[in-house]
Design a protein that fits this description.
Blueprint: E1 7-8, H1 9-16, H2 23-35, H3 38-46, E2 55-56, H4 58-67
Length: 71
């Protein structure tokens, strides 16, 4: 179960994906899933997310969990 808290992008990718995948691959996979969901991207932008940000707030993580159906 993913805890709702602030995460760096890499921390979130590491928490979501198998450890046998390279860290940079985990990050790319997370980014593909996020950008592949227009409603999620819209919600993140409403929460003031910018692609240059180093991480996600707890509120953003909550929306990511919801849209990506993560327990």
């Amino acid at each position: 179960m993913l805890e709702v808290k602030d995460y760096s992008k890499q921390e979130l990718a590491d928490a979501l994906y198998a450890k046998n995948i390279k860290p940079e691959s985990r990050l790319r996979k997370l980014w593909r899933e996020i950008t592949g969901c227009p409603d999620l991207m819209a919600d993140l932008h409403r929460l003031h997310y910018h692609s240059g940000d180093s991480g996600f707030t707890a509120q953003m993580v909550e929306r990511i969990k919801y849209y990506l159906c993560i327990d």
